[in-house]
Every structure is written in C-alpha cells, then in structure tokens.
Design goal:
Order of helices and strands of chain A: EHEEHEEHEEHHEHEEH
Chains: A alpha+beta (270), B alpha/beta (796), C mainly alpha (222)
Strand order of the largest sheet of chain A: 8-1-10-9
Helix content of chain B: 10-25%
Structural class of chain B: alpha/beta
Distance between the termini of chain B: 48 Å
Largest sheet of chain B: 6 strands, mixed, barrel
CATH class of one domain in chain B: Alpha Beta
Strand order of the largest sheet of chain B: 25-30-26-28-27-31
Strand content of chain A: 15-25%
Oligomer: heterotrimer
CATH topology of chain A: Alpha-Beta Plaits
Low-confidence stretches of chain A: 258-270
Number of strands of chain B: 31
Amino acid sequence: MSRMARLIDITRCTACRGCQVACKRWNQLEGEIGPFTGSYQSHSDLSPNRWTMIKFYEEKKQTGFEWHFRKTTCLHCGDAACVRVCPNGALVQMENGTIRRIEENCVGCGYCAKACPFDIPKVDHEAKKMRKCTFCYDRITNGLTPSCAKTCVPRAIVYGSWDDMAKLADERLAQAKGRYPKAQIYGKTELGGLGVIYVLPDSPANYGLPIDPKISFSLVFWKEVVQPAGKLLLGASLAVTAAAFIFSRRNAFKQKPSSKIEEGGGQGHE
Amino acid sequence: MTNHWTDFKNTDVALICGSNAAENHPVSFAWLQQAREKRGAKIICVDPRFTRTAARADLYCPIRSGSNIAFWGGMFNYIFENEQYHKDYVLSYTNAASVIKEGYAFDENTGLFDSFNEEKRGYGKGNWDYEKDADGKVVKDLTLRHPRCVFQLMKKHYSRYTIDMVVQTTGAPPDKLVEVYKLYSSTGQVGKAGSILYAMGQTQYTSGSQNVRCMAMLQLLLGNMGLPGGGVNALRGHSNVQGSTDMALLFHLLPGYMPAPTTEWPTLADYNATTPAAPSYWSNRPKFVASLLKAWYGDAATPQNQFAYDFLPKAKKGKNYSHISMFEDLHANTGIKGLFVWGQNPVVSGPSAGLESKAMENLDWLVCLDPFENETSTFWKRPGANAKKINTEVFLLPVTTFLEKEGTLTHSGRLIQYRWKAVDGPGNVRQESYIIDRLVKRVKSLYAASTKPQDLPIKSMTWNYPDPLVSQANFIDAVMREINGKDLATGKQVPSFAALKDDGSTNCGNWIYSGMYTEELGNRTKSRVLDDPGGWGAHPGWGFSWPANRRIIYNRASADPSGKPWSKERAYIWWDEAAQKWTGYDVPDFIGTVKPTDPLGDKPFIMQTEREGRLFAIKGLNDGPFPEHYEPVESPTLNVLNKRQNNPAAFLGKEGGKVKGDSEKFPIICSTWRVCEQFHTGAYSRNMPWLAELMPSSFVEISEELAAEKGIKNGEVVELVSARGTARAVAMVTPRARVFKLHGKNVHQVGLTWHFGYQGLVKGEIANHLTPHVGDANTAIPEYKAFLVDIRRVTV
Amino acid sequence: MSNKKRIMRFSALVRVTHWMYAISFIVLAITGFMVTGSALDWLEPLFGGLVGAMVVHRIAAVFLMGAIVISLIVRPSEILSWLKESFTFTENDALFLLTFPYKFVGMKRELPPQGFYNGGEKINSLIQIVSGAVLIVSGLFMWLAPGITPMWVYPVHVTFMVIGSVGAIGHIYLAALNPLTNETARAMILGDISEEYMIENHRQWYEEVYLGKKKENNKSPA
C-alpha cells in the first residue's frame, strides 16, 4: 500500500465535531465530561481518550472577524520525532505512512510526547501507555476510509493516496484563496511530508501549528551521536579492561615465579 | 421546502437568514459547498451574532433579533429602486398586475391596515381582495402603473424602508447591508437562481408568518420560485417534524394541510363551502376530505351521513387551541385533567417554562412516552417543586429510539424515506406503534357496548391493522397502504391523489402522500435508485417526494409562459411540442397535457384560485396582506417604521401578554438557539457521554463590551432575568456577540441555548424560564427569539 | 610470607556508603541502558519488563542519593576531606599518571610518593563526583518534572552515564582484578589493608600522616 494521507481543509470545516465523535465511536474511547472551557472547544487538549478534536480560533483581522476550526490529530510525519525517540520500538512507520503504536512495547515513558513538535502523543500514566490517532490503521488496511474522513459532511477531511491529497490540496488552495487571500498549504514539505496536509486560511502560527517544524537538535544529537558513541565507548572499555586483565595476570606471573624460585620452593604455578 | 437539500448545489447565491445552517443542519453545507465549487456560488449569512455559519459564509451581516421584516423590507425597496426584479416573471406569474379594491389602505401613522377592530384585535379583511370587473374577472394593469395594482402598492409600502431606516432599526452596518441586498438581488437576472434557507430565526416571532411571507414575496420578485437552486427553504428542526406537520399533528389542521373543522362549519357541506375555488387545485379538496373520512371511519362513513363528518371533534369557533392556550388553560385549571406527552419535553422546551411546569401540577395524570426519564416526566421533583403537594399520577412509558424502529421519515425537502430498524431496543422499551395499537384497542373495547351517540366515533373508528407486536413491519405496511389510499371497490392502491373521489369510493389517509405506495411500484419510499438525469440532484428514483414525487414544486415556473425554460442554464421543465406534454428532469407540477397556450397553461401557481404567486396576500394573514415591521412584544426600542409598537394581531393568550418586561428593567435583547452537539432538550444528547462532553454546560454568549460593563469574566456563572423568571448559565465572552446601535441608542444582545435541564449527565438551568408566553398572530408559535432580559454576575 | 602489618584504611561509614553507591550505580547503569539501547533488552524479564526496569531505576536512584545524604549527615568531615583531596592535584599525582598505563597492564613501576588517594584514584573520584552530580540533577528533572525538562537534558544524562560507567569499569578492574591493586578490594570490604601496600603505593601519606600520628600517639601515655 503506497503512502496514504488525509487532506484537512479547514476553510470548509463547520466544527460539527462529527469527526471527534466518530473517532471515539470507532475506537470505543470513553467520554470525558469536563468543566466548561470558555469556548465551544470541548477540552483544552487531546488526551489518552481523545485522539482528535477541533480547536477553535477567533481572529480579529483588518479585513473583518474570522472564526476558524482546526482538527488536531496525529500528523503521521514522514520523519517522525516520536519514532526516533522511542526507546523501546513502540512506534514504527508503516509502509502506508501510519505511525503505528506497538502496544506491547509501549511503557508510557513519555519521550514521544516530549519529542513531538505538535504535542500529540498523550500518556495514560496509570496504564503506562501512550495513545494517539492510529490513522484508523485497522480500517485503511482493509480498504475502508478512516472514520473521521468518512463522517465529514462538507468534505473538509478527505482520504486518499499522499500524491492525490497533495494534488487536491493545490486545487483546494486555489478555491480557498478567493475568500482567504493568505491561504496556504501545510504538510507537503514539512518533516519529510506529513500524513496530514492542511489547507489553512492564514499562517500556521494562527492555528497553533509550528512554522517549519524540525526534529530538535538534541534529539538528533542523542540518537545519532551520543548513543552510538556511548555504545562504542562502553564496548571499548570492556574490551580494554578484559585485555588489560589478561596482560596484567601474565605480567604478574612473570614477576612472581622468580621470587618463588629464590625462596626455594617448587610450587610456583597459578 | 419548496425545493430540497440536494438542490442547494444548484444555487448561485444562498441567503441564510434566521438559520444557523452550518451549525444545526451540517449536511446543508455539503451541498452549498458543492455550489461554491462547481458554480462559484456565494453564501450570505444574516444573523445577530457571528455563528459557525457566518464563519463559513462569504458575506456576513448582523441584524438584531426582531428586525427581520425591516431587513426584508429594505431588500424589497432596494429591488424596486434598482429594478432588480425579474420583470417578465413578475408580470406573468404573480399578482403584481392585479388591482386591489379601493377600500384597502395602510396608515403608517397608526401602523394599521384598513378595517382593524381594536377590541377583537383582528382585521376585517374584505378589502384585501382584487377589484373585479362587471364579469367578475380580476382587473389587471399589465403596464404595472395603476396606483392600486399590487406592484405599485408594494413599491409604495416598502418605500419607507430606506437603507438608513433599516440600519437604524436593525443595527446592521450600512455597507454590509447594501452588499447583501446587491448580491442577493443579482439572482433576479435570468439564468441566475438564489435560494433562501431559514429556520426558527424567522418563525419564532409574533410576526413569524409575515417573516416567511417576505421570503416568498422576495423569491417571486426575483423569479426564483420553481427553479433549481431557488425556492423558499425551511430547514426543519427535527428529522421527521415535516412528517408530523404533513400528518397534521397540529391543532388547526387535518392531514394534508386541510383546515380542521370548527363549530363554524357544522356540516360537511359548510366545510366544503370554504373550499378554494377552481381553478385552484385546492378545489379538489372535497375528494381528499371524503377519502380521509373513509380511511378513518370505513363503512361507517357513507355519502348519506356526510361520511361521518359528525364524528370529527369540532374546535370552538374563535377559540385558540395552541400550545400556549393549552397551558394557560391548564394553569387556570379549567378542565384539562390528563395529558399525554409523546416524545416532547415541555418543561424544558415550552415558553415560560416555569409557568408551564407549574401548570402541570394541576393534572390528575400524566403519561410520558420517551426513551429517557426527562424533565417533563420528573416535573414533580424539579428544583423548587414540593412533591408532597402535587397529586399528579405520572406514567413513564419507555419507548424505542429512532434506531430501534422502522417506518418512514419525511425530511425538510418533502422526501419520504423508509427507515429500517438497526437494533432492538434494550430492556422493556416498546415500539410506539405497539403502544398506540393497544391503546386504541383498549379504548375501543371499553366503549364497545355503549349506545351513546357521542361514543359512536370511537366505536366506528377503523383499526384493522396487523398486530405490531407480531410484526412492526407489517403494521407499518398496512398503515402506509391506507395513507396512500385505495380504490375501495377493487381494493387496489390508488396511483395518486388525482384518482381520489368525493363519492366514498376511495379512501386515503393523507392526500399529499398519495402515490407513495402504488400497485405498479410498490412502496416507493423504500426505493434507492441514484440516477440523476440532468444532474440537478432530483434523483427521482430515491424515495418518494410529495406531492406526486415532485422534487421542486411550482416547477412550471422554471419555464416562461410559452413553455421554454427561462434560460438554457436552468432548463428544468419545458413543454415538448412533439410529444405534446410537459417534460424535463422532474415530475411537472402541472397537468401534463395542458399546453402553454391553453387557458391557464401559463399559470404555474396551481394552489391559488388565480393561479398566481401572491405578492399581496388576498384576505391574507391575520396581520396584513403585506408584511410590516412591528417590534417584538418585548423590545428595547420604539417602532419607527410606523407608530404601532407591536403586531396588532399578535397572539397574547389570555394572560401571556400581561407578563411583559419593560426595557428600563430589562434593557438587553435575548434570544435562544441551538448548537450542533446537543439536540433539543438534551434527552438524548445530554445522556450520551460523547455528546455531553462536547458541550457540558449551558452558556450565554455575551459581547466583550457588555462583559466589560458588567465586570463579567469569561467562564464565570451569570444569571439572566426576565419578567418571567431566571436562568443561570456560564458566560462566554466573545467578539462574536455585539452591540447594536438602534436609533442612536446602544443596545446589547445576548443569547443562549435551550438544551439544558436538570436531568442527564450534564445539567443546566432551563433557558425557557425567560421566554414569553406570546406568539405569532397566525400560528401562535411562541416568540422565543426576541425578548428582554437583564444580566448579572452570580457571586457564589 | 604472611605476618604483614595491617592498617585501617576505610571506615565503616565509607565502606557502607561506597557499596550503597556502587551497587545502586550498577543497577542504574543496567536499567538505564535497558531503556536507551537494545543490547540489554534480554534482561527485561528479570525486572518485570521495561516498566519494571524503570521502577527499579528510580528506586536505585533513591539509594544512590541516599548514600550521599547518609555520608554527609553521619561524618561530613570524612567526605569533605575526601572531596578536598580529590580536587587537589599535585605534581606527584601528575607523575603517577605517567606510570598508570603500565600499572594498568600489571607492570610494576616506580611510583612517586602518593597521598591517601593516588592520582588515579583522584581522577576516578572526580569522574564519579561530576558524573554523579549531573546524573542526579538531570535524572531528578526527568523523573519529577518532565514537562519543563528540555530535550537536551536527555542526551546529557546518557552521556554522563557512559562516562560514569566507563570510569566504573576501569575502577572495578583495578580494584578487584588487577594483581597490582586488587588488594584494595578487601580494604573496601573489611576496612584494612597491608602496611606494605600503603608504603609502596601511598608513601607520602604513610610517612607524613600515618607515622606522624604514631609519633604523636607515642608521645602521649598509652
């Protein structure tokens, strides 16, 4: 299966939250009734039981007031920081682009949550497991559409091959520019191409997305330099001390028998 | 709707006024989005606050709640001044050219039309009629210059609605207002079509009916009736409320929108005498009534006994039986002893809900049928109630939800679709069909031995359906067959209402549904053929659209008087000269073989006697033949368009109009509305964790200016108070709510949802404790959308 | 050829806290490397999976910090003198380091006089003090405040784990395996060491401090 993706065109989203409920239904996640957040937004952020949600943005602009709604979800990055940082191989990149969790391997250490430039993975500290959007892996590998895309009525969420979605993004951008001259695409080139390509009415920063996200240098340094160098050093030190041990005993043996012979014994052996 | 959901993709401009379509009817945006994509359509949103619809619209213009007619009037004036009307259409298809009787008048100083009786609070409508010549024909001036032709009368009437006057009355920004008028009236051009989407924001006012009249008049002026992408389109608030009004779950109707009999028409002949005259299609009404009575009373209904017309209960002439009246009577304890509340929750949804809940304490018994134990079934232990003092015996019958039963639903587009059961209901829930079947059989058996004449209707009522407990499907099937109608001699289904007779040889449970279950095609509501010839989204093989499977009604008007489509861009129905019949992509809303050149061949509005769209409502509504702006019963400003403050015929009930707040004490306009995530009174949605978590509390949207004035912070609890009661909610301080400048005065508007009550996983105070017990002059629909409140912080 | 005179080199406090620290350190290293590499994954069942290993890691961290706290509370003077000496590097210590590679492979060399701790031991102490400090501080942040801990703290923690472990490997070899120095293991267990060893390897201390003390003791009546 070639790389798949979702196009999320937020210039079409009406924030009906159908996707939020469809995801809960398909994955049988618990509802979490919380306090009023001060806006239509249901909660402040994702959680181990909430793998997608709509975030609301009120914008007072020169050209007039705008109200936008962005579906936040795992973006299934082409170059995923979470996969790099996971110490136990609990995150793998599948051929179809899904950044997939391997349940047994996850220990809830939270390193992925730290590393993700979009702050997506959420750790259930009691169960010691991280949870996030699965790209409906079980659905898409059986020829079905992800639950959210299937539900979306104005086709703000579209599912298809990455190439097709990238092309559709261009078409949608052309349409969006009529109403939103500053519209732009996000996700075609970032981090090796994201598994979610957004059409945004304005700068990503307006909608809580980092401009030009990168894997943090510390993470790269850790995994590409410190870890292999450390392995090397430890291995070398063990080898050196093992060799030294052999040599030292031989040297000691060299020194010992002579003194014993002087004494006049005969038992000098190790 | 005159059109339908899929048809929205055909529009050039969609005007969403009095509706938050993206919010409450998300599917509408699938089609509107297509209209944008495929034909560059524009979406206009007119709403007191910036909603989710406004977020997705191309043009947003705010107007304060209660100023709709000022807005529409300004649009009419703009259209007349800039000659944006579709001239030929208006001339040929509306009563624009007809001359009105001399006695008709409107006086802006009194704000009244002629012949108003102040005591009765009603008009003598005799002058609201055409001037007729010696032969009894309507006098017309095809040059549209006669001072009393409808065209000139309308032009004059709305000349007061200047841009400035509209801006002062509505609080709309003038530039946006003109932009809206310009954009929407551009659909008057030949080849263009504009669609109007509306909902409770148009209807729930004392002038609600007139608001709807405005939309009809506008679409007639612009030539948008009968065209794909046009029409007057009500987005109904429940998946089957269209079905419920079609089947006349309303006090003033019989199934198929025929009037319910009153004591004014003691005999069938009297009733039939009110039938609209030919050539209106309504002139066939006696056939529909006779067939209906045959369906209800079977053999007991004969030509000799007026088809058992006597069996029908007669409403007392002049008495109002609306929801408001009923609860006033209940409150005054004048005789209603028992109440069935079937899938409704008036303790939360009723106007002046505090008063209505109190009224229910006077009941001897209450039967609630609901899937959940909602606020109405627990009214006796509601906050503030003293259960010990309440003697009502309450029965809660748990019933299935929409997924657990089968039958048809009729959606806003008049499309009847059969729905199959998905799952069995849990535990002891019962199908409503079972309950009603057992109820009827029980009642009938109780009266079986009676010889009293007043018990005859119950005894004679036919009830020959298969047992729904054995098979719900068979029960529904039998009922549907009867609703469609049969030829009683042959026992065969009639093919359509055209086959119905007034001699007792046919029966029919609802003439507008006739044709949905025929011999040739079977139960057409079950068919799911996707074919769409012409690509207009008509899909004639999908379900059954009343009447007679027409998808767009009045579609004859999509062709000009000669039978040719007005434009080739919108060729929908046309006269086929070779085949000598009307043809096209839909069932013609016309007699198929009547040539355009025949008399009446160029008269598309078949339900009117004059066969024309009425810009002037002949003997029209209770409050006038032309819509006129009046302030809502509670208003923060004086009416400046005329000197009558409120709608003179507004329904005030016996007491409702007296519980009125003044703008000194209650200076803020308040409205109520819905959100996507909660449904109605929340019996479903507040009991479902996945929905409850999306909107966990009742919240009131207030502007940043008002919040600053009152020191209210986002997220803190506030209390709204009106002359009827109080309701607490969490404050949502947002720039989407605004201050309106009305005639130089700054007026705040707030609003909240009415979804919350004291039951369920998430709870909130009942918003309808604030709303007034007054209603529309014609329908008595409560004025939920504009009343006055004050707001204060709750220091807890 | 027994009958060597024994000298008490390490007090009970030093020994207990040393082993407390050492065992903790080993457990920390093993569990730590289980988290950040795959070479030791085969040990996971021993700890109850990776989750168990992380729990053990934190318990061992507490004991590690405990060793420091105990020593600072019970006999701070001893610890402080150790710290002082470790940070005082003399010319003799530098010279010692030149002979160190030979000693490492068991070849005896003439040593310049060393204090209580020789140059190599001082280096080892420095490595452990610095690594320990960094590991403890970074580890506490990672454990208790992961939200505010910047990403670079993690590779720093791993780096110093490697440094500390390399140091420890060398230290363990010298203390327990190298024939020239493996007498000292006994000293860290039972506390005493042969006089001969101290004369050979820590002559400066022997002559100035040990003998000096003896002279003083001799002065005063027994």
